[in-house]
Amino acid sequence: MNLRLAVYEWIDRFGLDEARAAALLRVAGFEEEPPALARRFWPAVAIAAAALAGFGVILWLAANWDDMGRMGRFALLEAAVLGSAAGAVLRPAWRAPLALLAMLCIGGLFAYFGQTYQTGADAWQLFALWAVLALPIALGARSDAVWTPWAIVAVTAIAGWLYAHAGHRFGWQADAPGTYFAAWLACVALVAMFAGAAGRWLGAGAWTLRTAGALAVVLVTFTGLLALFDRHIAPHYWVALLLFAAVALVLAKGIAFDVFLLSAVALGLDTLLVAGVARWMFFDRTDALRDPIGQLFLIGLLAAGLLAVSVSWVLRLAREHRGSDGHV
Fold first, then answer.
1. Which 3 state secondary structure label does DSSP give 101?
2. Is the CB of residue 88 less than 8 Å from the CB of residue 98?
């Protein structure tokens, strides 16, 4: 039942005059702005406005490309970075949206620099430099609104580094196994940076942790699947399975338990397992008689069973952690 609609119905039913209707609305708490609106809605609007402003700077620069010289374009982007950073320092109430705007303008500045001078640097180097220069801004803002896009930039830099050092392909390179493992460990370290006490010290919240974790799971799962469907199963498929299993156990037993993160890891593990069974059934078996429909049916049953087991396990752990925290 909607209480506001009920109040209006009572006003109409009993024919209350303006003064009594205002008193009833005041008692019901509808005369003033809801506290949650000021606490959540307007900060969200400010963050959206900062993101649109950063996008608008790039679009304005592109629209006036022929009317501005090279120095004018650089001056515009640098002024946007310095102005928003200075505003974040001077106006604490606007710190998060202005810090986000500064971070986005840094990305625009590097994109324009790379397009103008054609330095030959790999894209991952620009993303890595973007993450490094935006790190003080994120540390100063201490907000999910800044840490979440920073995590996206950092994971993109890791993925670009992996692509560049693996022969510009994500498939397995026998002479560079350490490249994949280093990229995966970097993703794990990035997620660990936002978990538990470290995340609270940085000012990062659940959005940052879950975004970094989801992107890390996608990267490991994608490269693990490419290793699986290589001509011969590459070693990092098995390492990906072990990595997911170890991370799942750490999340299940650790103080940084997170339902979303554990669910993402479990989904990645299930995906690799089901894909491994599918390869074995369709490519590695040499049976004379094959039944593709039956094989697909068995794979579907396996996938459904693994998903059911994973969901049951995650829900049981979630109930245990809620009980240990004293929450219902």
1. helix
2. yes
Could you count the other beta carbons within 10 Å of the beta carbon of residue 267?
19
d(CA 283, CA 80): 56
Three-state DSSP state, 142? coil
Tens digit of pLDDT for each residue in 179-228?
Answer: 888 899 999 999 988 888 888 888 888 889 999 999 999 999 998 888 88
Distances 212 to 143, 202, 292 between C-alpha atoms, Å: 15, 14, 38
**pLDDT-based confidence at residue 288 (cuts at 50, 70, 90):** very low
CA–CA distance, 205 with 209 (Å, rounded to integer): 6
What's 151-204 look like in SS3?
A: HHHHHHHHHHHHHHHCCCCCCCCCCCHHHHHHHHHHHHHHHHHCCHHHHHHHCC
Which residues, 6+ apart, have CB-to-CB distance to 20 below 8 Å? none
Both tokens of 108, joined, read 């625009």
Query: Which of 158, 153, 41 is closest to 103 using CA atoms?
Result: 153
The three-class DSSP label of residue 322 is helix
Q: What is the pLDDT of residue 38?
A: 64
pLDDT at 219 (0 to 100): 92
pTM: 0.79
Whether the pLDDT of residue 62 is over 90: the answer is no
C-alpha 302/C-alpha 299 separation (Å) is 5
- H-helix or E-strand containing 42? helix 42-63
d(CA 68, CA 274): 55
Amino acid identity of residue 56, one-letter, is: G
How many residues are given for the chain? Answer: 328
Which amino acid is present at 27?
V
Distances (CA, A) of 67 to 57, 62, 79: 15, 10, 18
Q: Quick check: 154 and 190 in contact, CB under 8 A?
A: yes
| Those residues with Cβ within 8 angstroms of residue 197's Cβ, 6 or more apart along the chain or in another chain | none
Q: How confident is the model at residue 326 (pLDDT cuts 50, 70, 90)?
A: very low
DSSP 121: -
